[in-house]
Amino acid sequence: MSTSENTKVALPAMTHTVGMPRHQKIIFIVLLAVLLALPFVVYPVFAMKVLCFALFACAFNLLLGFGGLLSFGHAAYFGMASYVCAHAAKVWGLTPELAILAGTATSAVLGLVIGSLAIRRQGIYFAMVTLAFAQMVYFFALQAKFTGGEDGIQSVPRNDLLGIFPMNDDMTFYFFVLAITYGGILFIYRITHSPFGQVLKSIRENEPRAVSLGYRVNRYKLMVFVLSATFAGLAGATKSQVFHLASLTDVHWTMSGEVVLMTLLGGMGTVLGPIVGAAIVVTMQNYLASLGAWVTVIQGCIFVIGVLLFREGIIGVLSRILKKPL
Amino acid sequence: MFELLGIPPQVLMGQLLIGLINGSFYAVLSLGLAVIFGLLNIINFAHGAQYMMGAFGAWMLLNYTGIGYWPALILSPIVVGAIGIALERTMISRLYKLDHLYGLLLTFGLALIIQGLFRNYYGVSGLPYAIPPALQGGQNLGFMFLPNYRGWVIIASVVVCFGTWFMIEKTRLGSYLRAATENPELVGAFGINVPRMITLTYGFGVGLAAFAGVLAAPIYSVNPNMGADLIIVVFAVVVIGGMGSIMGAILTGFGLGIIEGLTRVFYPEGSAVVIFVIMAIVLMIKPEGLFGNNA
Amino acid sequence: MFKRIALTTVAATALATAPAWATDVKLGVLNDQSGVYADLSGQGSVLAARMAVQDFDAAGKGINVEIISADHQNKPDIASNIARQWYDRDGVDVILDVPTSSTALAVADVTAEFGKIFINSGAATSDLTRANCQPTTIHWTYDTAALANGTGKAVTESGGDTWFFLTADYAFGHALERDTTAVVEANGGKVLGSVKHPFPGSDFSSFLLQAQGSGAKVIGLANAGADTVNSIKQAAEFGIVQAGQKLAGLLLFINNVHSLGAETAQGLQMTTAFYWDMNDGTREFSKRFQAEAGAPPSMVQAGVYAGTLHYLKAVEAVGSNDPAAIVAKMKEMETDDPLFGKGYIRKDGRVIHDMYLMEVKSPAESTGEWDLLKQIATISGEDAFLPMEDGGCAFALAK
């Protein structure tokens, strides 16, 4: 009985340029333009939800697509940050930016603790360790007093930004969320295209070689893990401000599964993939809600078709056709 | 006798026995998962859904054709196993060369489809399925009342688990199987149809899940969601036992049932999480699992 | 699957004879359509709302009604998102049903924010009209306090004076245990202990043995849905009832009893706000309902029907769809419908109507698939629900 280690996740080829290629600059500008116009076309709260999940998927993609590490417990960072942010805004009365910061910091610490243990294991065992810890975080969220158990933390206020600007209007708040998520996505792009990102890539492709080149592989893995957890936390914290609530949904293991779906559907290891994947999944959940149990069936079909026919994801396929990394 | 942490020994004995009963389900389910992983290298996330299909199979046989519990115990696993074989042939077999991740995602998708379809047709309230007349009633063991059916669950699962272990580890057929996973080309060269063997193995693993489902039908309600949350627990059992280790899956299944049972006495709220705590500890100390031999 | 059941065609044909003015209202039925509560709410609640519109002859009275529905998957974030979108963009005037406590609390807050109307039927938490009350919330069918006052009181009075709870480990379970404990103690009973089981659970034998070991006369099941069904089944299997202990299912729906079967469930007592076979009015409605839905209405679906009917009466009386005026009218008018009889709506939004203590029939008594319950006692609304003064609803108590 052998567990083969030579089967690698198929990844689209990446160019190794550090600066931003021209077509990617165009993509980011177009993306920004689309996102600026979005709330005038669709319902702003829905648009904010898409943004939060896009950032969440990008954070996850940083770990899986660039670090080559499959975490099956990312809901822990997403959910914990959303609880802490909600608590900070509701009980301590913090302003949105401070509350979100508090949530994000919590996830960073959580990522450091779990990550330092998890990175000692590889492949499926790594995934299992992250799942195990995520289940413990879920248990904590269920039992702790401040999380409100099954009810979650409800009616979380949106206090004035910096204590000055009122944020209760969804349209205004959208642009604040856009600034956070777009900034986060750009930052993640920067990380993956920095020297640090190049080392990560070499570890992903061939870990023993990276070790022999003198890189302290575990330190790089831990850093990318913490960064990924931090951005997942940023997304979760922002989401709790958008919806005025934090709930168990965000820490449940199915949320960890959903972010895998988003990333794969869009195309892991690509820049745009997670954003597109998140947009599709969120849209589907929103507009198919009236179909009841059929939503599950449709989601299942997407998984199956995706795995059988489009393993590179939507953007992965596009990127191959256009012969350009997207 | 003495009191342990304030729990009278009779109560403790009863709880241990109940833990063993629950462990029986974990053992049969994780055995199927381990067989599939060990021989096909596929993490079968649809296992929970197939367990549910086994229970529904028994219910359908009774309500649509009048076939009772005992034939269903054989028929339902065969039918569900055949469906599993069809899935393996049409979809799963395309993924053997790829990372574990894809097999996991595909079977996860299949589980969503199966559960969604059953929810649409049968609702979610659960359907009743009676305990077979021969196994109604129970025995008074002095420290507790043991329903006959639960006793049967322990016996049936022990027999099935060790039968499977014997077949894979001690028979010629089993040696072919093990050899085929080590070196499919060589075994193929000896004139053995390796793909067919692998297909049948998947069918067998799925059949084990369905068997557990039929065993569960009379005591838990037959419900489309019955396997949804069970899957990650069983998955954890397999990891703790050592992925691919047949004996590991069996012993860990029974053992964790007992540990979970004890948690229900000392810290009931924590009984849902204890298995994951153990999994984290085991993976940190002995990553290949308690009974695994290669990481 | 129907997303929109536009009744505009009916309205159009009737408009010729209707008064010149017409009011447009849009009802949103938001509930569980794929999860554990889909059978007792789900599409059945949509049907109930539609039947209320037809029975009221809304079109003939110049009220143009549109009904939309969605699945909140029992997740508060999805529920609050849909509610927001419905009020903000789709022009929904009232949201109906919303089972599970966490989603109901979320929708209550969103409704208050938009100043619309929320008529809850599916959720159990009494906090909807207590600590978390809103002027825009109306809680129709039942709550944890009423369940406790029904089953808890009846069982304690009939000699079951020592209790042990099997409690689902989440807010609803805790609330139900809290409210029932208060009732048991007020009636001279004693609670010997409780065990909190993970939610959702599948095997309860371990917890049942602990309950048995406690020696309490009554095992109170402070859980819901499949958890309650499995607890009862397994208690029967382990001979707990034969050994002399009594089970009290604190929240049971007709669908749960049906899935247990009369054989297993016989003799169980439960509190309900509605049963299909109570009088001519309930039977007539249930017959029509069952013809379309395949099963008789649950108390939640009945509550959606009654809530919709009362809402439409208020719309007719006010003559516009101004939410504040309609809520005021709804609280001012007596409630009266064939399913719940006469009642009224308290200032805090609690609908006061009779509750019924029922017992599950034995297989010998039962004459049909759904002939499952017999009535033991009627509990008047004032006795069943917690007095407003003790509820702690700030706006209702403010002078």
Commentary on this structure:
The complex is a heterotrimer of chains A (326), B (295) and C (399). The model of chain A is unreliable at 1-18 (pLDDT under 50). With 326 residues, chain A is an all-alpha fold. Chain A is globular. Chain A has a single domain (38-322), classed as Orthogonal Bundle (ABC transporter involved in vitamin B12 uptake, BtuC). Chain A is built from 13 helices and no strands. The longest helix of chain A is centred in the C-terminal third of the chain and has 27 residues, at 217-243. A two-stranded antiparallel ribbon of chain B has the order 1-2. In chain B, strand 1 (138-140) and strand 2 (145-147) form a beta hairpin. The N and C termini of chain B lie far apart (43 Å). In chain B, helix 1 (9-40) crosses helix 9. Chain B has one domain. Chain B has 11 helices and 2 strands, in the order H-H-H-H-E-E-H-H-H-H-H-H-H. By secondary structure, chain B is an all-alpha fold. Chain C has 399 residues and is an alpha/beta fold. Chain C has helices at 8-15, 42-56, 76-88, 101-114, 144-157, 171-186, 205-214, 225-237, 254-260, 262-265, 280-293, 299-318, 323-332, 381-384, 388-391, 394-397, and strands spanning 4-6, 23-31, 63-71, 94-97, 117-120, 137-139, 162-168, 190-197, 218-222, 246-249, 269-272, 335-337, 341-345, 351-352, 355-360, 373-379. In chain C, helix 5 packs parallel to helix 6 (171-186). The longest helix of chain C is centred in the last third of the chain and has 20 residues, at 299-318. The chains are: A mainly alpha (326), B mainly alpha (295), C alpha/beta (399). Chains A and B meet through helix 5, helix 10 and helix 12 of A and helix 4, helix 6, helix 9 and helix 11 of B.
